[in-house]
Write a structure and sequence with these properties.
Blueprint (H helix, E strand, L loop, with lengths): L1 H15 L3 H29 L3 E8 L5 E4 L5 E2 L5 H13 L8 E3 L21 E3 H10 L3 H11 L1 H10 L14 H5 L5 E2 L1 H12 L6 H11 L17 E8 L2 E8 L6 E8 L4 H24 L16
Length: 312
């Protein structure tokens, strides 16, 4: 009789206090509800967009993914600069170049869409390679980008991508090379591969810790872009958007507390470019709303805000 009582009590305790593995499974089941709701939101955005869209999202903590048309090859526009910057830092780590080396801006460097470099004085202005890279990333200066491409070599950027198994991501032309673009030599990738590239960089598969930290420091510099547009101003986001006629893209890592994630949204064949940008903003905001809660929540979903008063 006593043994029977003990067994019943054990069953009741197990029901009230599930094991850690069972509790973890219950938490994961609840998370799936949020992922399903995110899927509904993104599908709705895709349905109403007059154009083509691909999305890839990766939870860097659990490895869970969300993919929609994620293997469609699309123009990257300036998002390809994520790969160019990675090769620059890799060559610096290998000792092939020094990021502090000075470069003298030449008149022949200036191309359309240059931005800041058009206001600088050729033959006089001297910048470190890191400064040139900063212009490439922060204001998407096309002249600065071409300087970096010439320094690291287009074939080396693609070799790095090959080494990571990113066979659909290609740097095929320099910035504002309309002849190359008209001949089909566009810079391209897929949402899945943009996410995989950023994940590899985040996990230190490309650069050592010192160069990884500085790489993301540069990529995190504030810029006009879509992923962070409706997110908190103090949130750290390492991203690079891209814009071409009929194309809007953005790829990056959002450092949301305990649950950082990678997101890439690529749009093309847009009837209205603004709609593509708005679609990226909407998907980014919906994704952040989920990961922010997951970052601050207990296994049961109790969310602790920074200014929680502790009221029951």
């Amino acid at each position: 009789m006593f043994k029977r009582f003990v067994c019943i009590a054990a069953v009741m305790l197990a029901a009230c206090f599930p094991s850690s593995s069972r509790a973890q499974q219950l938490a994961q089941d609840k998370e799936q509800v949020l992922w399903q709701k995110l899927q509904v939101t993104i599908t709705d955005v895709d349905t109403h967009l007059d154009g083509a869209m691909g999305v890839a999202i990766l939870d860097l903590s659990t490895g869970q993914k969300y993919l929609l048309h994620a293997d469609e090859v699309m123009p990257t526009a300036s998002s390809i600069k994520i790969a160019i910057l990675a090769e620059l830092y890799l060559q610096a780590q290998q000792g092939k170049l020094n990021l502090n080396n000075l470069y003298t801006l030449q008149q022949s460097d200036i191309v359309g869409g240059s931005g800041i470099t058009e206001a600088l004085t050729p033959g006089t202005t001297r910048l470190t390679l890191r400064d040139v890279a900063a212009l490439m990333v922060s204001v998407s200066d096309n002249s600065a980008t071409n300087i970096i491409i010439d320094r690291v070599g287009m074939e080396n950027v693609n070799a790095l991508l090959d080494s990571l198994g990113l066979n659909h991501t290609r740097l095929r032309r320099k910035m504002m090379d309309l002849k190359a673009a008209s001949e089909g030599r566009e810079n391209v990738s897929t949402p899945r591969e943009m996410v995989l590239l950023l994940e590899a960089l985040y996990r230190g598969k490309v650069l050592n810790k010192q160069f990884t930290d500085d790489y993301f420091k540069l990529l995190t510099v504030h810029k006009e872009s879509y992923i962070p547009r409706d997110l908190p101003e103090d949130l750290r986001v390492a991203n690079k958007p891209g814009e071409l006629e009929g194309v809007r893209t953005d790829s990056g890592i959002v450092f949301t507390g305990k649950r950082p994630y990678v997101i890439s949204v690529m749009t093309t064949y847009l009837r209205h470019e603004k709609d593509g940008g708005d679609a990226i903003v909407s998907i980014s905001n919906a994704t952040y709303q989920i990961f922010d809660r997951l970052s601050r929540a207990s296994d049961l979903g109790r969310v602790i805000s920074p200014h929680d008063t502790g009221n029951p």
